[in-house]
Amino acid sequence: MGSRGETFAGEIIAFLPDAMFVVDLDGRVIAWNRAMEEVTGVSAASMLGKGDYEYALPFYGERKPMLANLVFMPEAEIEQRYDAVERVGDTLVVDIFIPTFRPDGAYFWAKASPLYDAQGAVIGAIETIRDITGRKRAEQEMAKTSQRMAEIIDFLPDATFVIDLEGRVIAWNRALEEMTGVAAEAMLGKGDYEYALPFYGERKPMLANLVFMPEAEIEKRYDTIERMGDTLVVDVFIPTFRDGGACFWAKASPLYDPQGEVSGAIETIRDISDRKRAEHEISRSRQSLAEIISFLPDATFAIDRDGVVVTWNRAIEELTGVSAREMVGKGDYEYALPFYDERRLMLADLILMPEAEIESRYAHVQREGDTLVVDTFIPKLGEAGKYFWAKASPLYDPEGNITGAIETIRDITARREMEAHLARSNAELQIAAEIQQSFLPEVVPQITGFDIAARSVMAMEVGGDFFDVIPFEVVPLEKGTLGILIADVSGKGVPAALFMALSRIVVRVNALWHRDPARAIHDANNVIAQDSKAGMFVTLFYGALSEKTRALTYVNAGHNPPLVFRGADGALERLMPTGIALGAAEGRDYSSRTVDIGPGDGLVMYTDGVTESMNAEQEMFGEARLEAIIRKSVRLPAHEILTEILEGVQQFAGDAPQFDDITLMVIKGVP
pTM score > 0.70 for this model? Predict the structure, then answer.
């Protein structure tokens, strides 16, 4: 070709819309058109004549072969090294992503062909490059959209299929597989109304096909079909579907491409065979559901990402006096006005803020996963303000993106007042417990010849068990005598504690007044029975322990029989009741009995909190276990015997709660 022809060819290349360059057999650039200058920002003047793969630098930032260079390679080497390259005759075509081209990388379509001289010899190569980043991004987005649509369709609860304009099936979801027994693999790509076969046993149009028909023809041929915009809805009975046929509700709509052109149709099918029979029940169920939603106890509202109210339920209408009709669709923090009389952030708004900002600005907000919880006081609500508990959580779309937030608000003013009242009550109860504790001897008095230990373990802050050791030296009775008392009031808590205080005082006064235990308990019972208006009573074991005679003269008023153990032979005796519980009835007689406690002997007095203690399997500790511990520890001092019993009860009960007071008193005879 002459100089004029070369000039003409160069001008054509220069004005081609696609970026293009030409290299000779030595890899030197002999053409670099204007489009290439625009794509790379490198002028032809600075590139023409350059070799050593310099033309790759604007694309890759390094010298490396490009598609034009592959033209000179043997085919076997190309296939071996570049399996992504497509060959069309002697032309090579490839789509490639170059991550270093522009900040986010770029996709290119490239095409390279050899150049021949008049004798057919290869004299160089020409490469055309087209930036297809926009198209690729669009294809990727379309693929993602198609994938999301396919996943949504596949997991729709209703049987659903999609056809294209040629009537070929392009989606057949799981619910439809279950309904028809036909797998998606067997149906995808099929046309000629094959998708009607599982329903009708013949090829015929279904509702999705009617979407493509003119409206006049649909109305003329199918007067039972309801039209809702461009959507068709029908109830249909198919007698050949299953034994006895089936009734279906079907809905079909056109599908549109991004340009608004119809590209196919989607049909949803629901088996409503029992609908006619169940319409009334369904109506009732829907009404019940509506009532449940309407009367949810907690005030609730939801906002979208722009802070616009999308939900405002009845409970919040009642709380604020603002109707849903007035609030739904409002933004600019208008939902805060009924609470604060000003537009301000509420808990739902914090959900849409970065976590670090929430933690730095709102230390009182508690986070539970992605949910925020707070207790707050709003002084402008009600006459004296109100306390609220609020909980807000994000709302997500199918892709996991936050689309808004929902907030539930609960008026906890009454609970807060109750908590305050309970705190005061607990403080008062603690004071009562301290007063009750003061009734028990801080130090157990001792007399010669005996080792005495006692302890009370309350199930609650205050209780009904008590013990007492009364030194008789304060009145002119025989020196070296102690009054020994253990008792259990019916009931628990504060009433039992008050009755315990009364009983202790009455018994102690009468014990100091009367030498005979039977007489003391008789008079005490009359006083207690007169004052017992709530039907309460107290079981009690009381005795006078003499240093001189080493004997205990006692009365058992309906109490658990204390156990006397003999050090000499290990025998156990029970001191059975000698009268009824105090407070049960007036004028009852009690009799005194005497038991000797010699050296090595002992007496264990206890309340039923010991023997009736229960473990996790609901088994009681019982008398047999108590007796076994006593036999094992008979030679120990009194306080060690008491400790062994308490530890045995605790180990038996394990983690089970203590339901009753436990009181123990041990008297050990010593030389």
Answer: no
